[in-house]
Structure formats: structure tokens, C-alpha cells
Design goal:
Keywords: Exosome, Nucleus, RNA-binding, rRNA processing. Its main location: nucleus. It comes from Apatococcus lobatus. The protein is α+β, with helices and mostly antiparallel strands. Among the domains are: 47 residues, OB fold (Dihydrolipoamide Acetyltransferase, E2P) (Beta Barrel); 155 residues, OB fold (Dihydrolipoamide Acetyltransferase, E2P), CATH 2.40.50. It is built from five helices and 16 strands. The strands form four sheets. It has a five-stranded mixed beta barrel with strand order 7-8-9-11-10. A hairpin with a 6-residue loop joins strand 8 and strand 9. Helix 1 runs parallel beside helix 5 and helix 3 crosses helix 4. The longest helix is centred in the last third of the chain and has 22 residues. It is flat and about 65 Å long. 29% of the residues are buried.
């Protein structure tokens, strides 16, 4: 991250401490630490959920996180954990194995996900039954080490995750870079595919914490904002790497570093926060590399504290 001295590390920790003391919507009984007592209504009773334990009829938190209650069920959602998939999630992962009629994909979850041969569009968008020849040519679609975007299709009781890439907006990702952040920082939203028009950058914010950033490819006809309904065929095999200018790659690097800065400060990562971070850097006339230096991180932390204080004053 560009920090080589203990002083810089301590300075970053001080920025996090300042943010922790700032007004937050998670204050006032929403956040609990390990061993904290969770108040319950004795007359109504309660059901112990994940992240809690009971001693002598009293409920305590076993992890640090946010308290959640659904009817009588009380649980604590950890602030840091491996990715827990939900059906419909957009994810960014890396192919680790090609075997049988499936690809294994690393999503930084408890186990690798499975992408079945029947759950991908064949090159050219052909719709037919998969044959032995298709199975032999699976590496023409995806091979080990490929970075792909996909959607969680189904979940099994044993934790197995099944993916699908039948839409034209999914498939192999080339010409950009992957930034990995804690999955808990990603907000599930209606759209996870974004085109930052002002910067000329395409971005995929995966629910599993994988954020792919790359220069906008004008030759792509699929509009990821509307789900790719503008084209029928899916082009999963890209024979050549797209060529981009240094200026285009510099803009993509600026967006990628904005994601890294938000992760350093443990701030939510979504399209609006990323664009605000880029805008703050451009107002200070900073380059992409300068965004990872301590002065900008401190500036962003102070800006976030001011925003929270203003929101609290408006709420009052």
C-alpha cells in the first residue's frame, strides 16, 4: 500500500481511530464486541442465533459485529468474515481448475464455487446440448488462471456454490486489474456493473470483495447497466488483449487506488463512494500513485468525519 515505516502505519491507525469516534449509524446498541451482553426481553424469550452464546440464561456476543434480530431470533453479523454467498450475487473470481464438466472458481469463500459446462453460453451464443467435444474444448472458454465475472445460481446445504455466466455481461475479464477488499465492505445493490463515463472506466463490484477495474472498451456492444439486453450472442473468448492508451490505463489506476484507499479506512465500497474518492483526489490535483500516500488518506478520513457530523446535525 506504499507504507514502509512504522510511523506511517501508526498514522493510518490514527485515521481509523478518528473515524471510529465520529458519529456513525451503527452506534447506540447496534454494535457489539466479543463478550458483550445482549439485552433481551425475558418475558418474550429469545432464540440464540449465529455469533452468540448463552450462560445462565443470559445472551452474549461471541464475535464483533452488528446485532440483528428477526422476531425472537437474535444473531450477530461479524464485521470480518469469509464471503457468504446469496443467490443472485454478482461475483468476480479466478478459475483454479478445469475438470469433468465444470470449472472450479475461487471466490475467497469457504470453498471453491462450481461453474458447470451447462451454465455457460457457448462461443457464438449457440443454444444446444453439450457434447463430449464441448467437454474436451472447455479450456477454449475458460482456463486455469482466468479472471471471470459470474452470478450465483444456486446454493447447496453443504455450502457448495453454483455459478452461471449465461448473460452476455458475464464472462472472462481482460485488460483491467483486480482489487480485493473485505466482502463486508461491499454493499449489495441493484447494479454491480458500472461505467464511469467521466473517467472512461468500466468497473465490476463483486459481492465477494473482488472489484475489477479496466478502461472502457468502446467495441463492446453489451450495455452492462441494462443487463446486456442489447445483444443476443455472448463472446466469452477474446483472442487478443485489448489495446489501451497510457492515459486510459492511468484513469483505471486512479479508480483502483480509490478502492484501495476505501479499504484501508474500512469504508463502504460502492460506485458512489469510489467516485467521491476520485473526485477528492482530482480536486487536490493528485496523481493515481499519490492517492495511496498518507496525506490523502488523512484528508479522506477528515472529509468523512465532517460528512458524518453534518448528517448528524441535519438529523437533529
Amino acid at each position: 500500500m506504499g507504507f514502509r515505516s512504522d510511523g506511517s502505519v501508526l498514522a493510518v491507525e490514527s485515521c481509523r481511530a478518528v473515524l471510529a469516534e465520529a458519529p456513525s449509524p451503527f452506534q447506540d446498541s447496534g454494535f457489539v464486541c466479543v463478550g458483550d451482553r445482549i439485552e433481551t426481553d425475558v418475558s418474550e424469550g429469545f432464540l440464540r442465533g449465529h455469533g452468540t452464546y448463552v450462560i445462565d440464561g443470559v445472551l452474549y456476543a461471541s464475535v464483533c459485529g452488528l446485532k440483528e434480530r428477526v422476531n425472537k431470533l437474535i444473531s450477530v453479523r461479524p464485521l470480518k468474515q469469509r464471503y457468504a454467498a446469496e443467490i443472485g450475487d454478482v461475483v468476480v473470481g479466478r478459475v483454479t481448475e478445469v475438470a469433468g464438466k465444470r470449472w472450479r472458481v475461487d471466490l475467497k469463500s469457504r470453498q471453491d464455487a462450481a461453474l458447470m459446462l451447462s451454465a455457460v453460453n457457448l462461443p457464438g451464443g449457440i443454444q444446444r446440448r453439450r457434447t463430449m467435444e464441448d467437454e474436451l474444448n472447455m479450456r477454449l472458454v475458460f482456463e486455469e488462471g482466468d479472471l471471470i465475472s459470474a452470478e450465483v445460481q444456486s446454493l447447496h446445504a453443504d455450502g457448495q456454490i453454483n455459478l452461471q455466466t449465461r448473460s452476455s455481461k458475464y464472462g472472462r475479464l481482460v485488460g483491467g486489474q483486480l482489487v480485493e477488499v473485505p466482502a463486508t465492505l461491499i454493499k449489495r445493490q441493484k447494479f454491480h456493473f458500472h461505467h464511469l463515463e467521466d473517467l472512461g472506466v468500466d468497473m465490476i463490484v463483486g459481492c465477494n470483495g473482488g472489484v475489477w477495474v479496466g478502461p472502457h472498451d468502446a467495441h463492446k456492444s453489451a450495455d452492462t447497466q441494462d443487463g446486456g439486453h442489447g445483444r443476443e450472442e455472448a463472446v466469452l473468448v477474446m483472442p487478443t488483449m485489448p489495446s489501451f492508451t497510457p492515459q486510459q490505463r492511468g484513469k483505471a489506476a486512479r479508480v483502483a487506488n480509490a478502492v484501495r484507499v476505501l479499504a484501508i479506512l474500512y469504508l463502504p465500497v460502492h460506485s458512489a463512494s469510489i467516485q467521491d474518492t476520485c473526485q477528492a483526489a482530482m480536486q487536490l490535483d493528485l496523481g493515481a500513485a499519490d492517492m495511496l500516500k498518507l496525506p490523502f488518506i488523512q484528508h479522506l478520513a477528515e472529509q468523512e468525519v465532517q460528512r458524518r457530523q453534518q448528517d448528524e446535525m441535519q438529523a437533529d
